């Protein structure tokens, strides 16, 4: 922005040559632009970069009093195997054949399974579904977080992470997921 | 008819005040921004749709990657007390200058017997030790991680009268047995509730 020189161009009288008075004002526009740019940058990076934390409550191993039996018909077990694959079944291990699934959002994905099964359990027993997550030794941390995330998204808040049993490892082995 | 002449005004606006405000805000944001703590191992956090943020204080973070565990205690006073208590437990005396060094340490990642040498090193040597080392031992013989967690909890309780919260920052491709071991260590002292640090992703 051009600054108008308002200082006047020296007098003609007297014949004296006066030096032109320079304006002392500096154009700050560019500086303000830069400052606001940096402000925006710092604002966005400080508030958007906060780590997110997913709360997780593990079942108490010592406390035997609060454990109540849950009917097998409304218990869904998710076995986490190798290669980003999982298996799930409703009921007791060995009695119901497991279905192989994955972590995607598609038809075989765990999200659809969770939604379908919880609706089915709700309509048949009138109670909410209980999900048991059993990560095997061949699964990775990401798989556990993915399943927990899907449980949160599908609003299945009754779940627990439990150690896998040998029977279930055999099931995974049969499907080449261990 | 004589026309009234509208005096021409300069289009320049005085930017001084705006500039002041802008720089004030800039200074504020720069000063409040926390420097990012560098992870001792490359940790690629898993993504989730959780929108809950981690509390700013009163959290101890267990960083897990490549089978190693690192422990981050929050706050200089907590660090000092925890170190001194660990020292008495393992019969290691720490000098005031070592304690000071420890307070500036972002995370513990060496066995306690090596800690004294580790504190005397410069940052280059430390990096080499951390990459070559195995992190805090998690086996049940030395019980070191258990003790770190336990002492940090005791110190937090003494200083603030609050329960210390625990957060696990794990690498996506970390094998589950490592996690299982750490969770077992926490559960052994009845820390059944903790949180998992993730990055945000859409549903």
From TrEMBL, chain A:
<keyword id="KW-1003">Cell membrane</keyword>
<comment type="similarity">
    <text>Belongs to the ExbD/TolR family.</text>
</comment>
<protein>
    <submittedName>
        <fullName>Biopolymer transport ExbD protein</fullName>
    </submittedName>
</protein>
<dbReference type="InterPro" id="IPR003400">
    <property type="entry name" value="ExbD"/>
</dbReference>
<feature type="compositionally biased region" description="Basic residues">
    <location>
        <begin position="13"/>
        <end position="22"/>
    </location>
</feature>
<dbReference type="GO" id="GO:0005886">
    <property type="term" value="C:plasma membrane"/>
</dbReference>
<keyword id="KW-1133">Transmembrane helix</keyword>
<dbReference type="Pfam" id="PF02472">
    <property type="entry name" value="ExbD"/>
</dbReference>
<dbReference type="GO" id="GO:0015031">
    <property type="term" value="P:protein transport"/>
</dbReference>
<dbReference type="GO" id="GO:0022857">
    <property type="term" value="F:transmembrane transporter activity"/>
</dbReference>
<feature type="region of interest" description="Disordered">
    <location>
        <begin position="1"/>
        <end position="22"/>
    </location>
</feature>
<keyword id="KW-0472">Membrane</keyword>
<keyword id="KW-0812">Transmembrane</keyword>
<keyword id="KW-0653">Protein transport</keyword>
<keyword id="KW-0813">Transport</keyword>
<feature type="transmembrane region" description="Helical">
    <location>
        <begin position="28"/>
        <end position="48"/>
    </location>
</feature>
């Amino acid at each position: 922005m051009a600054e108008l020189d308002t200082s006047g161009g020296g007098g003609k009288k007297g014949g004296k040559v006066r030096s032109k008075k320079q304006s002392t004002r500096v154009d700050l526009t560019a500086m303000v632009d830069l400052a606001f740019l940096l402000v925006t940058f710092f604002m966005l990076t400080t508030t958007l970069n906060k780590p997110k934390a997913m709360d997780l409550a593990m079942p108490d191993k010592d406390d035997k009093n609060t454990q109540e039996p849950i009917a097998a018909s409304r218990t869904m077990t998710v076995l986490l195997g190798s290669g980003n694959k999982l298996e799930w079944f409703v009921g007791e291990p060995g009695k119901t054949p497991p279905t192989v699934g994955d972590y995607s959002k598609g038809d075989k994905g765990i999200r659809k399974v969770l939604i379908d099964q919880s609706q089915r359990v709700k309509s048949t027993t009138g109670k909410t579904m209980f999900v048991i997550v059993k990560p095997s030794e061949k699964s990775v941390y990401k798989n556990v977080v993915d399943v927990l995330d899907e449980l949160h998204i599908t609003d299945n808040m009754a779940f627990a992470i439990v150690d896998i049993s040998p029977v279930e490892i055999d099931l995974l082995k049969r499907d080449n997921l261990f | 008819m004589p026309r009234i002449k509208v005096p021409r005004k300069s289009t320049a606006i005085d930017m001084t005040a705006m500039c002041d405000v802008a720089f004030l805000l800039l200074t504020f944001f720069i000063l409040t921004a926390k420097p990012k703590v560098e992870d001792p191992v490359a940790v690629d956090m898993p993504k989730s749709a959780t929108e809950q943020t981690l509390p700013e204080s009163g959290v101890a973070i267990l960083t897990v990657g490549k089978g190693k565990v690192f422990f981050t205690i929050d706050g200089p006073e907590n660090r000092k007390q925890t170190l001194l208590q660990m020292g008495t437990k393992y019969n290691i005396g720490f000098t005031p200058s070592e304690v000071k060094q420890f307070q500036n340490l972002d995370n513990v990642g060496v066995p306690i017997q090596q800690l004294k040498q580790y504190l005397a090193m410069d940052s280059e040597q430390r990096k080499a030790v951390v990459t070559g080392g195995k992190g805090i031992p998690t086996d049940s013989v030395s019980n070191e991680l258990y003790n770190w967690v336990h002492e940090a909890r005791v110190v937090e309780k003494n200083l603030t009268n609050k329960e210390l919260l625990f957060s696990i920052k794990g690498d996506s491709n970390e094998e589950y047995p490592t996690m299982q071991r750490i969770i077992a260590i926490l559960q052994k002292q009845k820390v059944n509730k903790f949180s998992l640090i993730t990055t945000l992703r859409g549903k």
